[in-house]
Queue: 2 jobs
Job 1
Amino acid sequence: MEAAAVRTPQPAIACRGLVKRFADVVAVDGLDLTVSPGECFGLLGPNGAGKTTTIEILEGLTKPDAGEVTILGRHWGTHERELRARLGISLQETRFHDRLTVFETLDLFRSLYPSGRDPELLLSDMSLTEKRNARVGKLSGGQRQRLAVACALAGDPEILFLDEPTTGLDPQSRRELWDLIEGYRAAGRTVLLTTHYMEEAERLCDRVAVVDHGKIIAQGTPSELVARLNAPYIVEFASDPALTPESIRALPGVTDCRQRDSRWFVSVASLVEAVPALLARLDREKAKLLTLSTHQATLEDVFISLTGRELRDE
Amino acid sequence: MSKVHSPLYALTRSRFLEFVRQPEALFWVFGFPIIMSLVLGFAFRDRPPEAIPIGVAGESRSSQLLDALQHSSRVKPERFASIEEGNAALRMGRIALLVEDQHPLVYHYDPTRPDSRIARLEVDDVVQKASGRTDPAPVQDVQVHEKGSRYIDFLLPGLLGLNLLSTGLWGIGFSIVDARMKKTLKLMTATPMRKSEYLLSHMLSRFSLVVLETGVILLFGVLAFGVPVRGSIGLLVLLAFGGGFTFAGLGLLCAARTQTLEGANGVMNLVAIPMWLVSGTFFSADRFPDALQPVIRALPLTALNNALRAVMLEGRGAAAIAGALLVLAVWAAASFGVALKIFRWQ
């Protein structure tokens, strides 16, 4: 990613010091961000973290109270129409007119752009050809979301903004949409998306920024963020009787532990040190091991270690 | 590669399709005014003049008087056994006049009741002629049953105007508030679409329906009630477009900031109901006090209704409706301009 930044000095998206208040709530609290051309960048965070407000400020739909936004080297105040023609935007939970067909809807959006892609080709790219003449009101959630992305792509945009593109979709539809987004990226285009799905960020994004309370609390590639944890592994176990947090923290290389239901999730620096020590400890306390598994830390663990809270899927 | 349309055409076409694919909207546009004109047309249809009920009482010397009265189509005599019974019927309003059959004849009636005074004249006329009166001056009656002066003739142009107002306000208002609630409005503003084009597309999509709805109601009036169209059809079409465009502008304005369908409905009622009442749809606007007339005349529905009546019923030309078109144009321009300024896209 650094190589890409050097190759093209002008970032696709840049903002500095964004602030947005709603009544007495500070939704965005001094946020800086730079996205390079060709990059897929993810804003990751729980609901209410300020992701949607941030992306809508970048999309020029919400005016920030303070801060500066530069998109493709242009500003919203001076080049709105030019930027509109060069960007594709999918909002969170948009509903199209139920009584228009899929093709009519896409054709309408295409006509709003001075240039763009053939709606018929877009429909086949989005696997919607079968539904070409179906009313939008009859579509499934996944089909509707694909139509929303198709509409965002109608003007053949240089940057694609997606606000929680797969929220509420079943795993199958979610994977289909990921394939579509990856296909768009393969042509060297830039994507900015928000999500609260770790799996989505890990699969799609070159870089992610973890957003909490309107601020970016960490950013980097998913693997960088995970590596930045002092404890890149998670040991998950349950025992009878359960161990106390104190005895778990006393194990070698443990940086953190948390309990969900009867299971302990222990962040450790090294599996080869921690697992034998854990087994020895259980043995000493005459506790019976019920389950034991280990995995590499994920963005979910990054988020928890940064905020002390869990991301919610719902 | 499919054809790429201009944004204005594509937006207008979408609006039109959305609208005609709503069966309930079609009912309100076409069915409702026809039902209304049917009901009101029959309620106020023309009837032959009714014979006035009168009573005859007293000692009859002959059946001559009763026979003469019975042959008149203008009065409907009833025989009473006594003067008292006849007077009771008169007091109850069952008869307009009681004839006491003696010599000379006595007419009992209340001169403050107009039908009683007419009965007095009719009965006396019959009695005098039957007694051999000859009128020195020859006269001839020509009875007028002219179409164009009935209530249905007055009503139908008003219903056309009213329908243009209602479909303009609700057809556009609901569609915009719905788009705002679904966030399609916000999504549209994220495209290079010009905002004025979006608003204009709503007004233009009304055009395609204006001709249809006005034509259907007008045709119904002509076929079912023989309502006359004395002026030029071209001027009627022009007025329909003018009205359609103006009320579409008012619809935009009503929906410019409202966030819910209920809110929009309230605002539109606030705009529409006063015009329904004062703009001469169901009865002439001239009945309101003089002080209010300048305001009433400045309202777009008043201008439209008066112009529609001038063309349909009086066969007036373009010069007679130029003022009305100007009033409509001012309202259209002002509504559209203000709506565009204050419109809430999110």
Job 2
Amino acid sequence: MGMITYCEALNQAMIQEMERDSRVFVYGIGVPDHKKIFGSTVNILEKFGPERCFDTPIAEDSMTGLGLGAAINGLRPIHVHIRVDFLLLAMNQLANIVSSFCYGAGGKVGVPLVIRAIVGRGWGQGFQHSKCMHATFAHVPGLKVVCPTTPSDAKGLMTAAIRDNNPVLLFEHRWLYWQKGEVPEDEYEIPIGKGSIVRKGKDITVVATSWMNVEALHAAEILAGNGVEVEIVDPRTITPLDEQIIVDSVNRTGHCLVADNDWVFCGFSSEVAAVVSEKCFGSLKAPVRRIGFAHTPCPTARHLENEFYPNAKKIVRQVENVLGLGETDLSNEVFYSHEKRFKGPF
Amino acid sequence: MNRPSTLDVNLNLYRTMYLIRKSEETIQKYYPDDSMKTPMHMSMGEEAIVAGVVHALNPDDQVLGTCRSHALYLAKTGETDRFFAEMYGKATGMACGKAGSMHLSAPDKGLLCCSAIVASSIPVAMGAAFANKYLKNGKRVAVFFGDGAIDEGVFWETLNFACLKKLRILFICEDNGFAVHTPPGCRHGFRSLSKLIAGFDCNVFEEKTTDPEVIYSIARRALATMEENGKPCFLKLDYYRYLEHVGINEDFDAGYRSVKDYLQWLEIDPIALQKKKLQPTGIPTQEILDIEKTIDEQIERSIDYAQQSGFADVEELHKGVFAWA
């Protein structure tokens, strides 16, 4: 065990898998350059050479086809996108070909393709450098969508993704890259499709994705001061979804708030709300609440950006409201502190 | 590896083309029953291109195609049981009826996939060629597409990277003069496609012929050149699509092309042409008669097999979305 960052954990998983399996290679725009995808691809070019770690033209559609062709022909590619927004250029390959490839081949051809995409935020990333959209990809059958939150999850889920014989998309939040945590040094897998209880509590279930787990933990600490015990469930995988862990938690607490790191309308929070209302109807003491991005493009100016993103304060207020509690005095709390840390530019 | 004799090659070209033509004529015969519920993009007219290229390749070389790929599947596999069963949507089809006419594949025979989104299998072919180079297995890849695919950005993205990485891939442009019904004059802002392609670091070949032997030798030359200089090849080969874009009928009454053109191409129909070359006296040799008889019987058996086969259980709907873990 060592205390390492989320970014180091991703890097460790890729390097260990590349050492273990010569069929694994990493590619994408800027992957081997001096910035190394925010440091997540350091030492890969140096260790494995340009055959297994290479840059590409700015041609996301074609380069996704490259990954598919290589995957069905015996390799295990990892394709990296420094923003989810750029991954949208590959939507034809993903939704029309990658996702249905196995099905169209009568279930006989696996597609062991990993796609990493980074979710940007803050310092003016604006409406083309900040998308998450995990639900959009999860909507398409045949793709697995994973959103690791902790360093330990990042390593275990990355390893599982590389070993999976199906296309797996990993959505990595830029701000999580600095999060530190205990991570086993040896290789290990965290099964894709298993959620985790980030914090135990008896009064309300908060289902949080990606960065919203950090906000939910902050909110839970504040609420604990008022005697409210929040249970935080991180599904970790958007699809296949671990419905059971959510259902069990809500059946215990009787309340559910979904804090999604994405837009609300037709989003992952809608899916969770539907699952909970179908499967926990008898246990629910109030309707499911949902928070997420404002239903606007992401603005650039800080004060508007702060309004766009949900945070711990919004979670606290929602919980108080649904439980019929008075408002906690939050005047001494510091919110958006990570945004102060992130000085850009990218 | 011993190359087959010229006569063997020429007979094989005829065998493959006869199989394709006869299979499609059989589709035309049974399609009106409305039991084959799948959009048929017929290969009639393009047989020489597919036969010529596929025979120039080794059996373990790999190919990818479009929604118009009956010819490619039949040329690469030679089998018709799973082919016709797939057309009928039966459990014995190549994908239990889930792929249909537009998504034929036979990975074990080297047909990796056929995609019905124009140009979308081109980058996949590049990925396959990349893997072959990475694994040093010596396999070559040929990807077939219509000239409409040239309109798509992904074609150029792929050509660019395949040239940069020196991948062993043949880009086979089967040009029938139309993207669905739209002629090049409505689509092209450039003068010469071949000259454009020649600006890339690749080998370019161009021919307007229905003679499978000529296409076979062009493809062989392309493969040899690729072996020599390590660069991908682009082959532009013209043909005439006999039938409507999708469906089993002629469409000369639609007005976008003339029956006169068709009749000119029909005079050099690839199958008739090859048959004539194989029997200079005009009398079919026993060998040709045997080939035709064998294929006729094979197709008859396969149609019977497909019609007799059952549909998959409805649970099949949910199978195969994901591969084994």
